[in-house]
Amino acid sequence: MKKYTLRTARKDDLKFLFEVSTRAMLPVRKTLKPNLQINIAKEFEEYTKKFIPEKIQIIQMNGNDVGRLRIVRTSKEIYVGGIQILPKWQQQGIGSAIFKDLIKEADKNQLPVILEVAKVNKIANQFYTQFGFKQVGEKGTDRIMEYTPK
After folding, report:
1. Domain residues of the chain, as ranges?
2. If you average pLDDT over residues 16-32, what whole number do you get?
3. What region does 83 belong to: left with phi over 0, alpha with psi -120 to 50, or beta?
4. pLDDT above 60 for 1
5. CB–CB of 56/9 below 8 Å?
6. DSSP one-letter code for 83
């Protein structure tokens, strides 16, 4: 299993996090809107307005920043608000290692793990299904999925 580390994002991570978010989600966005015209400057401006680094973790592998993770923990659930890994680091077991740890945490604390995933993102849907997530609802173009602790 891959060993990753997490660190809290800082203000100077803004450009990296925008790049991760933009590059990792581009295939999904293009599937949803094939004629999508991206205005990077405008999107960066919007991203900057909403940027709260303390709420985001940087995923690191071998000292390299490889992705972003946002998890909101409450007394009732573990909500995965987003995970994106740069394309060149995908398919290397990083996401699997993170989700194995989340599943252990969920089982230990008897809390469900909730997330939203684009319906058209077949790879992500299969990924979550293999970890025992089941669809429990829909929200626009997304499936709401839940892992129920054992």
Report:
1. 5-147
2. 77
3. beta
4. no
5. yes
6. E
